[in-house]
Amino acid sequence: GAGVSQTPSNKVTEKGKYVELRCDPISGHTALYWYRQSLGQGPEFLIYFQGTGAADDSGLPNDRFFAVRPEGSVSTLKIQRTERGDSAVYLCASSSMGGPGEQFFGPGTRLTVL
Amino acid sequence: DQQVKQNSPSLSVQEGRISILNCDYTNSMFDYFLWYKKYPAEGPTFLISISSIKDKNEDGRFTVFLNKSAKHLSLHIVPSQPGDSAVYFCAANGGSNYKLTFGKGTLLTVNP
Fold first, then answer.
1. Residue A84: helix, strand or coil by DSSP?
2. CA–CA dist B110, B10 (Å, integer)
3. Using the 8-state DSSP alphabet, how is residue A101 labeled?
């Protein structure tokens, strides 16, 4: 079966621009997570969805970051007024339910802000 | 404040020998621990996990040991194979906390 997919795989943008990153979770998975991985670091939590609602967005660094999951499946991470410090790999993961346990990761989107 | 620490950035072992990757944590609320493997340009792939009610979990060549009193876990790979060469991340979550907290990773190189 298909795993978690993310598009685009790479995104290069200029400082100040708006970007959208898409995640397609494993079919039937109700829980969806976004993480960000900077160079030399492990993934860091950004936001968690259970169904359509954001159950925890405490990891979003500031109000330039926003994510939606309108139909409880595909999710979009939106970054406004991008800054060079936003450059990182953005990872999406899903699991069959929330709570402790294994999460399945997509390949990530590498965002580069020039 | 790093709650999950992997103090060895890299490890090199010979094919056929044992690889031991270590991880320490500080948050007493963590009760579920996972190891992920990551190849370049790919997302992390789940390898093995352990609940805090156990002290050992084994899956083929991979065994994870948990020492709760020391807040320490380790991943043993035996025998190591060149295809095991990757970055290994230790991660944890606990209670109703679904978000994974990751260490910085250890780059394992298995030499033929």
1. helix
2. 11
3. S
Q: Residue A62 burial by CB count (10 A; 0-12/13-18/19+): exposed, middle or buried? A: exposed
Name the pLDDT band for B94 (thresholds 50, 70, 90). Answer: confident
Phi, psi dihedral angles at B84 (to 5 degrees): -80, -10
The residues in B 20-49 lying below 8 A from A, measured between CB atoms, are 31-32, 34, 36, 41-46, 49
Decide if A4 touches B, using CB distance below 8 A. yes
Q: Widest CA span of chain B, in angstroms?
A: 43
Question: Chain A residue with minimal CA distance to B95?
Answer: A100
Residue B78 contacts A where some CB pair is shorter than 8 Å: no
Residues from chain A contacting residue B95 (CB–CB below 8 Å): 100
- Interval B30-74: pLDDT, tens: 989 999 999 998 999 999 999 999 999 999 999 999 999 999 999
Our measurement of the distance from residue B107's CA atom to the centroid of its chain's CA atoms, rounded to an integer in Å, reads 11
Tokens of A107: 């390949």
Residues of B in contact with A108 (CB under 8 A): 42-43
Whether B46 and A104 lie within 8 Å, measured CB to CB? yes
Residue B58: CB atoms within 10 A of its CB come to: 12
Query: Minimum mean pLDDT among A48-52, A92-96, A97-101: which range?
Result: A97-101
CA angle A32, A34, A40 (to 5 degrees): 145
